[in-house]
Amino acid sequence: MKTLSSDIIKKIVDVAGKNNVLFTKEEKIPYKNDASYIQGLLPELVIMPENADQIASVLKICSSNGVNVTVRSGGTALTGSSVLQYPGILINTMKMDKILDLNLSSRYVVCQPGVRLDKLNEYLKKYNFFYPPDPASSRASTVGGSISTNAGGLRAVKYGATKEWVLGAEFVTGNGNIITTGEYTLKRSAGYDITALLIGSEGTLGVLTKAILKIEPLPEESGRILSFFRDISEVGMAISDVKNAGITPLIAEFMDLQTVDSIRDRMNIDIPEYTQFLLMIDIDSTKKSLNDKMIQAEEIIKKYSSDIIVITDKGKMDEIYNARKGAYSSLLKQRENDKQIVIIGDLIVPASELPDTMKEIRRKIDEHKIKATLFGHIGDGNIHANIFAENTVDGMKIVDELQMEIARIAISHRGCVSAEHGIGTEKNILLYEEYRKKNSLYTLELMKNIKNVFDPENIMNRGKIFYEKQD
Amino acid sequence: MKNRIEIESIVNKCIKCGFCESVCPTLPAADYNSIMGARGRILLAQFAINNEDQSLKISDSFYSCLDCFACVQVCPAGINAGQVSELMKEGIADEKIARVNPVAEMIKNVVVKYKNPLGIPEECSKWAENIEFSVSETLLLTGDMYQLMPYTRYINKLRKHTNQTLFMAFSWLIGKMPFLIKLSRHFYDKKLKLEMESSLRNIVSMLQRSEVKFNYLREDEPYPGTFLYDLGYMNEFKEYAGNLYRYLKSKNVKRIICVDPHTYDVLKNKYPDVIENFDLDIVYYTDLLNLNFKKSGEKITVQEPCHMVLHGNTYRAMDILNTVADVKLPANSGKSTMCCGGPDELLFPEISENVSIERYRNLKNSSNKIVTICPLCYNSLSYDDNVQDFSNFMKNLM
C-alpha cells in the first residue's frame, strides 16, 4: 500500500471539508490505540465526518483508489477492531453525536453513531425508558461501536445483546452507497434482514450513520441478591434453579475470588472468608410483586449458599453495580509491574455448560502457570478469562497459545470464541478455528462473499474478523 | 525531562478505556479532536516522552486542559490525566520541550514583573474604596480573580473581531515588553466590572456582619501566582510563592480568607508543596458566614466549582444554599460536576465558549435561575440575568 498521493488527499479533503480532517502527526497519534492491548498503525488521515453524504463521498474516493479505511467512534474496542491493521485512513464518527428522534408509543429512538450509551440512557431516563444493552464500557462506548460489535453487557441475560434492539439503520457501504435497512416498526417480514447483517460487522462492510433502536420502559422496581460459594458448580446450580423456577434475572454475574478482591473496597460489603465465588443477581418486577420474587429466589439460593445479602437501596445497588462494571479495570491493580498487561478474554457457552467449562479453563490456566482471573455473566454463559501477561514476544506467544486452548474448550462445549467483544484482529484466528472445528469453513467463505458485495475493493477494516496474511 | 519518571508512572497505568474522555469537557468542545481530550493527552504524553520528536506540536493539547479533574473521578485505573497535563505544561514552560504559548508567556512575564496579572494593582483594589477593614492577623486575599473577569471578557470580545495571528503577535510583544499590559486598564466590560465589584463588596459585607475581623491590603495586595501554577511555570511559581509567603509573614498574617475556588485551591494545596512548614490557615469565605439568611424559596440550580468538588476541597456554600432555596442540581453534579470552561478563556476562547454553552444548557434544564460560586463560572455562564454569583444571591437574603 502506497502512501496517499497529494491528489487523493485533496479529493478527500474537498468532499469531507477541511475542518473535518486531521492531518498532523500529533493529532493522529491517539488513534493508534483503542481500549485493547493491540497497537495499530498511524492513520494517514483522520476524517471526522458530519453526515452520511460526506462519508459516502470519501468512501467512493477510497474505493476507487484502493485506500484502506478503518472506522471508529468511542474507541473502546477490546479486540483491536478500531485501529489500523493496514495503512490507510480512519473515519471517526464522533462528531455525529445527536439523538434525532424519540417515539415512546412506537418504542424507538433514532441516534447517530457517536452517541455514547450512558448519554442515551441519561436522556431516556427522563421519560422513564431505557435502552437495555449495557456493556461495561457504556460510559464511553457508543451506539455505532456497540452495534458494530454486537455488544452485550450485564443485562443481556434478560434483554439479550445489541442485535435484539436494533430495528433499522442508515449505512454507507464500503463502495459509498447510502442504504437504509429495517424500519421504525417492532415487526417486519420483508426479505433478507440486512440490519441483522450489519450488527457485529465491525466496520468491515461500511459505516453506520444512523440507528433506529428499540427502547423499553424502565423496570418499576428491582432488588439484588449477593451470595457466596466455595465451588463454581454450586453457583451454576443456584442460577439454574432460579431460572427453572421461572425467574429470569435482570442480571446474573459471577466473580472469582481474585476479581472480588480487586473490587472489595468499592463494593464495601462483608464477604465470608470461605468465598471462592460470588454470585450477584438482580431481579426486577412490579412494586407489588418484587418482594415475593426476591423471597422465592433467596430460598432457592439458600440451598447452595449459607450467606446471602439482599440489597434494595438504590444508592448501594449503584455502588456495587459500578464496582462490577469496573472489574476489568480494577484488576490492573493486581499487576506486578506497569509493563504487565491484562488481556480480557471473552467467550460463551450454553449457560448449563458453564461450570464444567470454567473448571477446564482454570485447569488449563494453571497448567501454564499464568495468573488469570475469571468473571462473567453466568446467566447467559459468558466467561471473561482475564490473563495477566508480560508484554514481550515470549509473553504474548504464551497468551496466544492459552487463548487458543481456552477457545477450543468453549467450542467443545458448543460455545463461541467471542460473546460480546467481537473478533477484531485479536480473535480472527480463533474464529477460523471455531468454524474449522465445526467443519463449516464455508460459513466464513459466505461471510467473505457478503463483504465483497458491500465492499468489492476490500478496503473496509482489513484484517478484522478475517485473518489475512500480510505481505 | 525532569518529570519523565512521574509522567511515565501515570501513563503506563492507563488502559486506554476512554472513560476519561467521555467526561472531558474539552473533547466535544474541540469537535472531538482526540488530543484535546483526556485520553488523547495521556497517549500524546506517552508518545512525546518516548520519542524525542521536536517537530510535534503538542502544546495546545496540554494547555487546553481545564484542570477540572473530571477525568480523575471516572478513571477505573485511578489515573489523574489532569496531572499529566500539569506535568507536561511544566516541561513545556520550564524545559521548552515544545512551543510555549505566547499568551502564557505574556501572563508569566506580567505576573512576575508586577505581582498582578494585569499590571494594575491600584485598579484591582478600587472596589474596596470607602470600606473600613480591621487590624487583624486574618487577611482577605481576593486573588484578583473577580477583578480580572471584566478584562478577559472584553479582550475576548475584541479577539473575536481580530486576526488570531495578530492577537498572538501582540501577546508575544507584551511578553517581551510587559509594561504594555498597563494599556489593559482601558479595556474592560463595564457591566461585568460593576457586578464583580459588587460581589466583592457583598462578600465583605457578609463577613463583617458575621463578625469576622479581617484586614485587606488594598493596592498592596499581592497576587498569589495562581496563573504561574496553572500554566506550568513551576520554577517561577516556587520562587514567587516563597516571596509571597515571606511577605505575608512580615505582615504578621496568620489566616487568609479566599473568595474564589482557584485561589483557595492554590494556597491550600499547592503552597504547602513548595514551601517548607507552610503554616498559614487558609479558609473559604462561605465557611465563615454566620448569618440568619431569609428563605428565598426560589427554585435554583447551582454550578459547583471544580476546584472545590473535584479537587477534594470542602466548603459550606451548598449547605447554605440548601437552607434558603429549593436547589435542583443538574444531571452532572457533585463528583460529576462539569466545568464552566472558564480556565480556557484566555488561551482557547472558542473551546471555553463551547464548554460554557453546553454547561449553561445543562444547568438550565434543572432551573431557570443559576447560582455560581466562582467568578470564572459567573463570567462563563452569565448568558442571561438569571445567573447570579453566590455573594449577590445571598446578599439579598441578609
Salient structural properties:
heterodimer, A: 471 residues, alpha+beta, Uridine Diphospho-n-acetylenolpyruvylglucosamine Reductase, domain 2, Uridine Diphospho-n-acetylenolpyruvylglucosamine Reductase, domain 3, Alpha-Beta Plaits, 4 domains, 19 strands, 21% strand, B: 398 residues, alpha/beta, 3 domains, 3-stranded parallel β-sheet, 7 strands, globular
Can you walk through the features of this model?
The complex is a heterodimer of chains A (471) and B (398). Chain A has 471 residues and is α+β, with helices and mostly antiparallel strands. Chain A has helices at 6-16, 25-28, 52-65, 117-125, 143-148, 156-159, 194-198, 232-244, 257-267, 287-302, 314-325, 327-330, 354-368, 393-412, 428-437, 441-454; strands spanning 21-22, 46-47, 68-72, 88-92, 99-103, 108-111, 129-130, 166-173, 178-182, 206-214, 216-217, 221-229, 251-256, 277-285, 308-311, 341-344, 347-348, 372-377, 382-389. In chain A, strand 8 (166-173) and strand 9 form a beta hairpin. In chain A, helix 13 (354-368) runs antiparallel to helix 14 (393-412). The model of chain A has no long low-confidence stretch (mean pLDDT 93). The model of chain B has no long low-confidence stretch (mean pLDDT 93). By secondary structure, chain B is an alpha/beta fold. In chain B, helix 4 (38-50) crosses helix 7 (81-95). Helix content of chain B is 50%, strand content 6%. Chain B has a four-stranded parallel beta sheet with strand order 5-4-6-7.
Brief digest:
The complex is a heterodimer of chains A (471) and B (398). With 471 residues, chain A is of the alpha+beta class.
What summary fits the major beta sheet of chain B?
4 strands, parallel
Strand order, largest beta sheet of chain B: 5-4-6-7
Largest interchain contact: A-B, 38 and 34 residues
Instruction: Classify the oligomer.
Output: heterodimer
CATH topology of the largest domain in chain A: Uridine Diphospho-n-acetylenolpyruvylglucosamine Reductase, domain 3
Task: List segments of chain A where confidence is low: pLDDT < 50 over at least 5 consecutive residues.
Answer: none
Alpha-beta content class of chain A: alpha+beta
